[in-house]
Prior knowledge:
- By secondary structure, the chain is an alpha/beta fold.
- The protein contains eleven helices and ten strands.
- The strands form two sheets. Strands 6-2-1-7-8-10-9 form a seven-stranded mixed sheet, sandwiched between helices. A three-stranded antiparallel sheet has the order 3-5-4.
- It is globular.
Amino acid sequence: MHLSSVININDNHIAKIGEMVADFSGIVLERLFLKQVVRKITLQIEKYSISGVDEYISMLKQGENFTFVMEDLIAALTVSESYFFRNPNQFEYLYYEYFPSFFSDPAKINMPLRIWSAGCSRGEEPYSVSILLKNFKNQYPWAEYIIKAGDINSLNLEAARKGIFSVRSVRDKFSGFEKIFPEKFGVFNDFGNFVIDKKFAERVVFDKLNLNQGNDLKKLNWSDIIMCRNVLIYFKDDLKTRLLEVFYEYLNPGGLLLLGETECLPSDNLKFEIINYKNTYVLKKK
């Protein structure tokens, strides 16, 4: 008999696992479909060939010794899918508005632009930024920049460092940016996968990042741009509020916060200036 046919996951199990997931990562299981959650937990139990959900919960409770089990579950529960230049108008704003303003500011001479991609999935977002800045530097040779990217999922980071992507990651054919820039972004290998060019890949530094851990958040300090797109949708409301406050604190004056298209600020936000650009928005530290 297949293991999944004898696994009984009840509401109490879901509540216990949900509490541990929220404590570790801030992710709220209630934001996900219950049937999907049960299925993903069942698959995890099968993967580790353990007796049932109670033993699985015991593994999750053991903390540091079994962190990989929790990370594996979070990876299964969250959508690690993105694509190059997702929400292209935000990238247009960076390239045509923010970069020229930043690098022409006399107060920022000899200062590198510091960018963090928080919740970077498999790297499509930070590599898109790297493509923009490499091409921008061709016109402004003095422009220096540091791109860092982080994710809670170790497998995502491993895949990001390899820089190899399925055709789904280039589904919009780079949103037209390949027509603007002269340099090839990469090549397609014999398996039909896209391989990012080394000159773009080597400018991105990947690191483990848990947005529910204060010490990890300190890595974002002194950023000029923080990108945290399509990540907050998974989090409990108090963590969302805290993260927005931390992002504001850690951004340099005039710095930008980029969120996902469906993510918005609380109605009582008085800190960020909201900039509308071609029906998308970016948030600027006042």
